[in-house]
Specification:
single chain; alpha+beta; 8-stranded mixed sheet; 26 helices
């Protein structure tokens, strides 16, 4: 532990009442029960406010609660005091001053600065040779703002001194997300160096995998000894399966397996059955190459590029980032950048586009006082609070101010530098939205499209009352499937949130140039000459739109007319048009050698897009529908006993399978029921259950099981659906009502949290709308015979249908060879001009590369 004198720095400051030495101990006595020493597992936030991006660098410093260890800026600390009654906070402040000059005019020689004890990023805009930092800590007691300068070892009680030292020496709560640390937590497998690999001729294709024993197609693991592809169980990433990979290990003793779908140029998820934990395999590229997966040349450079791709890809990086163009920086509301945390540009680009949409601005930033006032006791773990914090940080302009004019700098520096914070760090937001997700919680590059769907899912699950801003993306897709033998058809509808356009490479308008370039490139490689300048395929947008509307073959189609598998074709049309249309260009695929491939193409994306001709028409005259007969559900033999004889607790439902189904557009509660009633056997088996039961009237109603009361539907009760057979104990109701809450609020909160007192209090603070709607709660209590009710039962999915005419307002571009490497940049049209958001840099765009985008955002315009 550091010396206390060095830790606490220089006493002093302003804004509070200083205490005489003899009064310190007496003043702290009433608050001693609330002061805690951080224990192992406590998250100590001392770098960032829970409600804003204030830090010790900010003008008002940061206040750390000495009980919860949450941190608050000057604008928000009073709210926490009023809500919790916690009175003692540690105030942290970093001062930046110009260094004292020597006799020759230069700065004095560098020496170790014992006045720095806060683990903070230094200001990149300041030259460290000219400025010095000094950290200050003091205790502040609310509501009178008494200040106790630190150190004050002689007068402070021992417990307080120990608590202060522990807070200041605590590690960052985000240390597992810091670059290069998450991988180091995994041990190297003792089997990696001398792993036996059978020479059995097995070659693994880049797609189309399924378990060799049960035909499951998710959570698949490749055994690195014999090349068997088998399903996993409930280890490592909490995905479901039938455990055939583990059974294979028990039968054969082959210890290592790699999860298919996680293989990237940086590595993959490897599990050791013998060591019973995730491990690192330093020879993974060699072991994968044994089965035809060639990763030896996929090691990324600093920019995520392969060495042999650097020359032809450099133009892509230059064009998308508008390199070589003098870009004018933009400041003010709506022009705030996001600092890169290490491969977090996919998140930054999506969030910039999201918060350029008025519906998201109103839902979160427009409701800021209400959301913050009714946030749970730990706002760092609340989605709506963190969305509001991020939105306010991006839109307020508070963290995007122009640099101080040169003529004022000298005057300011004579006393103290007041740094202008430009750009915000989304560390707390990323930590929350990515927790429990095996990919987004890592420090690897991710697919922006996948994160967009993940975010929409979180918005759906955490909507504020009846308001759901993600409704603007939702639309209905009509799928027409035709049996090729009987010519009979079936029409179904599903929910989707984006339009995926295939790249019609065969429609390239510069085929002759492409052929010539390829020949020249190969000749240059063979003769070790510099590669020619890249020729990019030019694809008409109309060709991509035509490819989208073309019929496609249906794998494993089961014809109800034939009562057997048959050939089938499917066409998709829009049953409704969304308010905002998100278009993804499907640029990424895998080659036969497993190397990720990217279609480096230029597509003439239109500013005005008309897709009214893709409106669904429904059953046409002369068409005959397929019989309404469901396909048989095939349950693996070794899972039947588990399904028939074991009733799982609803709290043990495999949430990863639930989320896979929900991202397909099915109602969340229907997905939970499907996973429950199929015994946690994976998303594919649960999907079959959904197909069979989706026409039932209670299909989307919450899961309620005899013996479990309303616990299973606790998640749905947030949205107005609550089980009524779990009457809360009167003694717990009495405790909550004694705090001043209505009895109806107490009952509703306890039912929503399975009678957990602490969670119920958090629930009350985060759902103020139920206090206003007391008549609804009373009516709910009187309806003793009902199992499930809702405030408003919608007629089908919520959609905002209208015209299919759209205008482009934002697009996200990707640079690099695959979504697992490279860099993302976002362009947004604001106030009639295009603006480029490249991490923390925000500038007016001179040449927006609309033809090279990956995701495009359109908003509806009247025809």
């Amino acid at each position: 532990m550091q010396r206390r004198g060095a830790l606490f720095g220089v006493p002093g400051g302003s804004g509070g009442r200083k205490m005489a030495a003899g009064d310190v101990g007496e003043l702290l006595v009433p608050h001693m029960p609330t002061i805690r020493v951080p224990r192992s597992g406590d998250r100590v936030y001392k770098n960032e406010c829970a409600f804003s991006y204030d830090s010790p660098n900010s003008e008002g410093g940061l206040y750390v609660c000495m009980n919860t260890f949450l941190a608050f800026g000057r604008e928000h600390v009073e709210r926490h005091f009023r809500k919790t009654g916690q009175s003692v906070y540690m105030h942290l402040k970093r001062h930046v001053r110009e260094k004292v000059r020597g006799a020759s005019g230069g700065a004095l020689p560098k020496r170790r600065n014992s006045k720095i004890f806060l683990d903070l990023d230094t200001d990149d805009d300041l030259n460290s040779d000219d400025y010095e930092y000094e950290d200050e800590a003091k205790l502040v007691i609310f509501p009178d703002h008494y200040e106790i300068a630190l150190p004050n070892i002689e007068e402070l009680p021992a417990l307080v001194t120990i608590a202060c030292d522990a807070v200041l020496s605590s590690k960052s709560p985000y240390r597992k997300q810091d670059p290069d640390t998450w991988e180091n937590e995994l041990p190297v497998s003792k089997y990696a160096n001398n792993l036996t690999q059978l020479d059995n001729g097995v070659r693994i294709p880049p797609s189309g995998w399924k378990c060799a024993r049960c035909d499951l197609r998710e959570n698949l693991w490749l055994n690195l000894t014999d090349g068997s592809v088998l399903c996993g169980k409930w280890f490592f990433d909490s995905s479901g399966g039938n455990g055939h990979a583990l059974e294979h290990y028990r039968d054969m003793g082959y210890p290592l397996a790699v999860k298919l779908g996680t293989i990237t140029p940086d590595g993959a998820d490897v599990y050791s059955f013998q060591e019973e934990e995730p491990v690192l395999d330093p020879h993974l590229a060699k072991h994968l190459a044994h089965f035809g997966i060639d990763m030896l040349h996929m090691h990324g450079t600093e920019n995520g590029l392969r060495d042999n791709d650097m020359k032809p890809r450099v133009s892509e990086w230059e064009v998308i980032q508008e390199t070589g163009t003098k870009l004018k920086p933009m400041y003010g509301p709506g022009y705030t950048g996001l600092k890169n945390l290490g491969n977090s540009c996919y998140l930054s680009s999506v969030m910039q586009a999201i918060f350029s949409i008025p519906e998201f601005q109103r839902a979160y930033v427009g409701n800021l006082p209400r959301i913050f006032d009714y946030s749970p006791l730990d706002p760092t773990q609340d989605f709506n609070t963190q969305m509001t914090k991020l939105g306010h940080g991006l839109l307020s302009g508070q963290y995007s101010k122009p640099p101080v004019k040169s003529e004022l700098i000298e005057q300011v520096m004579k006393e103290e530098h007041k740094p202008q914070q430009n750009g915000i760090s989304p560390r707390m937001f990323k930590a929350f939205v990515s927790k429990s997700h095996p990919e987004f919680s890592s420090n690897r590059q991710q697919d922006a499209q996948e994160f967009f769907l993940h975010l929409v899912n979180l918005v759906e699950r955490n909507r504020i009352g009846s308001e759901n801003p993600s409704d603007v993306f939702r639309f209905l897709v009509e799928e027409r499937i035709q049996c090729c033998q009987t010519r009979k058809v079936r029409y179904t509808e599903r929910v989707d949130y984006l339009m995926q356009l295939p790249v019609a490479m065969e429609a390239a308008t510069n085929k002759d140039e492409l052929i010539a370039y390829e020949l020249t490139r190969r000749e240059a490689e063979a003769n070790r000459r510099p590669l020619p300048e890249l020729v990019r395929a030019k694809i008409p947008f109309s060709a991509c739109l035509q490819a989208f509307s073309e019929p496609e073959n249906v794998d494993d189609f089961w014809s109800s007319a034939l009562q057997a598998k048959s050939a089938g074709v499917k066409t998709s049309r829009f049953a409704s048009f969304p308010e905002y249309l998100v278009v993804q260009i499907k640029k990424f695929t895998f080659g036969l050698d497993w190397v990720p491939k990217k279609f480096d193409v230029s597509i003439d994306m239109p500013d005005l897009l008309d897709i009214n001709h893709l409106r669904a028409r429904g059953l046409q005259p002369g068409e005959e529908e397929l019989p309404d007969i469901s396909p048989p559900i095939v349950i693996p033999d070794d899972s039947k006993d588990r399904l028939m004889n074991q009733l799982i607790d609803p709290s043990d439902i495999d949430e990863s399978s639930v989320m896979q189904l929900a991202e397909m557009g099915f109602p969340l509660e229907a997905c939970r029921k499907a996973v429950y009633f199929t015994g946690n056997m994976g998303a594919e088996v649960a999907f079959n259950w959904i197909i069979v039961h989706m026409e039932e009237p209670d299909f989307a109603e919450p899961l309620t099981m005899p013996g479990y009361g309303g616990a299973a539907s606790a998640g749905a009760s947030v949205f107005g659906a609550t089980g009524l057979d779990n009457q809360p104990p009167e003694e717990i109701v009495a405790i909550i009502t004694s705090m001043g809450f209505h009895r109806n609020q107490a009952i509703q909160a306890l039912r929503a949290t399975n009678n957990n007192l602490e969670r119920a209090l958090d629930w009350i603070f985060s759902h103020p709308e139920f206090e206003e709607d007391s008549d609804f709660v009373i009516e709910m209590e009187n309806n003793a015979n009902a199992n499930i009710i809702s405030e408003a039962k919608p007629e089908g999915p919520r959609v905002k249908d209208g015209s299919g005419m759209y205008e482009l307002f934002a697009f996200i571009s990707h640079m690099g060879t695959s979504t697992m490497s490279g860099h993302y940049v976002c362009h947004i049209k604001k106030e009639g001009r295009w603006v480029i958001y490249n991490d923390h840099r925000v500038c007016a765009s001179e040449r927006p590369p609309k033809d090279l985008g990956y995701m495009y955002f359109y908003h509806r315009v009247p025809r």
